[in-house]
């Protein structure tokens, strides 16, 4: 009995702390500090250099799933392996948090050309990635480079809706190996979405749930199907002092769960 009461007490305390976290935007920076943006850009540059080298060879096209023994067997049995790659030191930037995750899955019977078709069909994103993606469309396109907009929703205790814009590049090594690079260029939190009072929050009102988001897909066709690997690097506001025990698990669960959902949705779409 006492264990249950203690557990419930901690749950209510965590929710209460989260409410404080989201109810007092004036206490936090509305925009990421320049030093945090610089550190994020530097980190991204290092990761993109590694991915560029990785994508030059069939032997290294996908990163090894080091944390999962017998990973190929698990993947072929439907497992989706998600790893946290955020650096042990440096994830807490000045006034911000950096999150880096990688997820790997296997879609039996799928082809590289089919996955690329899925990724390029932004109009169908709400069908394949609902309820996280509410709408999506391409603004401009020139060959393998395009600019796309998406309205996305994250629901973890509270619901946050954002309008996001991305610069996206598709590439391929050969017919069995392809990749994409997506970098956010604009993220706006939306107040009262879907109502007559809907509006974009200005920089002083926004809560900083997501300041930056880069996504990197790598996919390889072999073994009778398609290996999918996605890395996401995001920048969010920092956690208020003294609330880390309650808020950090929530903040860190969002990118992981989003990655798991995206992998699962992509695999399901490829089976249709």
Structure description:
The N and C termini lie far apart (48 Å). The chain is built from six helices and ten strands; from the N terminus they run αααβββααβββββββα. The protein is an alpha+beta fold. The longest helix is centred in the C-terminal third of the chain and has 28 residues. The radius of gyration is 19 Å and the shape is globular. The N terminus is likely disordered.
SSE diagram, text form:
Layout: H1 2-23, H2 34-54, H3 71-76, E1 81-84, E2 92-93, E3 96-108, H4 112-120, H5 125-128, E4 133-142, E5 145-156, E6 158-174, E7 177-191, E8 199-200, E9 212-222, E10 225-237, H6 244-271
Antiparallel strand pairs: 1-3, 2-3, 3-10, 4-5, 5-6, 6-7, 7-8, 7-9, 9-10
Keywords:
272 residues; ten-stranded antiparallel beta sheet; 33% helix; disordered N terminus; alpha+beta
Average residue pLDDT: 84
Estimated share of beta-strand residues: 35-45%
Q: Measured on Cα atoms, how large is the radius of gyration?
A: 19 Å
Low-confidence stretches: 1-28, 242-247
First-to-last CA distance: 48 Å
Helical element count? 6
Profile the largest sheet: 10 strands, antiparallel
The 3D shape can be described as globular
- Helix coverage percent of residues? 25-40%
Task: Give helix and strand order, one letter per element, not per position.
Answer: HHHEEEHHEEEEEEEH
Total number of beta strands = 10
Structural class: alpha+beta
């Amino acid at each position: 009995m006492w264990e249950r009461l203690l557990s419930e007490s901690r749950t209510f305390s965590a929710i209460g702390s989260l409410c404080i976290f989201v109810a007092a935007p004036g206490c936090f920076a509305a925009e990421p500090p320049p030093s945090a943006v610089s550190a994020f850009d530097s980190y991204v540059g290092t990761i993109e250099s590694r991915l560029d080298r990785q994508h030059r060879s069939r032997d290294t096209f996908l990163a090894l799933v080091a944390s999962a023994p017998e990973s190929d067997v698990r993947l072929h049995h439907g497992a989706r392996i998600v790893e946290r790659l955020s650096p042990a030191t440096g994830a807490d930037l000045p006034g911000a948090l950096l999150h880096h995750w990688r997820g790997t899955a296997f879609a039996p019977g799928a082809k590289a050309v089919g996955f690329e078709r899925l990724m390029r069909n932004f109009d169908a994103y709400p069908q394949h990635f609902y309820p996280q993606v509410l709408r999506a469309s391409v603004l401009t396109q020139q060959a393998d480079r395009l600019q796309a907009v998406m309205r996305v929703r994250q629901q973890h205790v509270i619901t946050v809706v954002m309008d996001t814009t991305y610069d996206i590049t598709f590439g391929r090594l050969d017919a069995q190996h392809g990749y994409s690079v997506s970098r956010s260029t604009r993220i706006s939190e939306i107040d009262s979405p879907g109502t007559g009072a809907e509006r974009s929050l200005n920089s002083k009102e926004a809560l900083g749930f997501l300041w930056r988001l880069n996504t990197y897909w790598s996919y390889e066709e072999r073994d009778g199907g398609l290996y999918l690997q996605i890395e996401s690097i995001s920048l969010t506001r920092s956690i208020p002092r003294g609330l880390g025990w309650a808020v950090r698990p929530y903040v860190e669960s969002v990118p992981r769960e989003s990655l798991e959902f995206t992998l699962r949705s992509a695999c399901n779409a490829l089976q249709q």
